[in-house]
Amino acid sequence: MAGSPDHLFNLRNNFYLGSYQAAINNSDLPNLSPDDAVERDSLVYRSYIALGSYQLVINEIDSSAATPLQAVKLLALYLSNPHDKESTISSLKEWLADPAIGNNPILRLIAGIIFTHEEDYNEALKHTNAGGTMEL
User: Domain tally for the chain?
Assistant: First the structure.
C-alpha cells in the first residue's frame, strides 16, 4: 500500500543528483508540514552551500531557527571561515552532547560532513552510523 505522497521527492532528487540550482528553483512547495518545511529549507540551504553561497546561508538563518537549520548554518560557517574552525567544532560538539537535540538526523549528518573535512573519520562515523535517513 502506498503511504502519503512524498512532497519533497523532486527536491531531494535534484539535490542528490547535484542539480543544486534546480533544487533551489523548485523549492516553493505549498502546504508542507512543519517537519517537511524544515527539511525543505535544509536541502535548499545545503544547495546554496554546495554552490559556494555560504554568506547567504549565514545571513538568512537566524538564532531562532530550528536545530537542523542551525546545523546547516554551522556547516556554512565552517566552510566559509577556515581560520575559525575550532569555534565551529566546539559548538558542534556541544550540540551533539545535548540530549534534547543531539539525535537530530540533520545535525548528525552535518557532524559527519564536518568531521570528514577534519579527517576525523572515527568521530564522523560515530555520529552517522545509527542511520535513520537515506543520507545517514
Answer: 1
What's the pLDDT at 82? Answer: 84
Range of the structural domain that residue 35 is part of: 9-128
Is-contact 74 110, C-beta < 8 A? yes
DSSP readout, 23-45?
A: HHHT---SS--HHHHHHHHHHHH
DSSP 52-109: T-HHHHHHHS-TTS-HHHHHHHHHHHHHH-GGGHHHHHHHHHHHHH-TTTTT-HHHHH
Helix (H, G, I), strand (E, B) or coil at 10: helix
In-domain check, residue 48: yes
**CA triplet 99, 103, 109: central angle to 5 degrees?**
140
Per-residue pLDDT, 5: 81
Q: What is the pLDDT of residue 75?
A: 98
| Residue 96 within any structural domain of the chain | yes
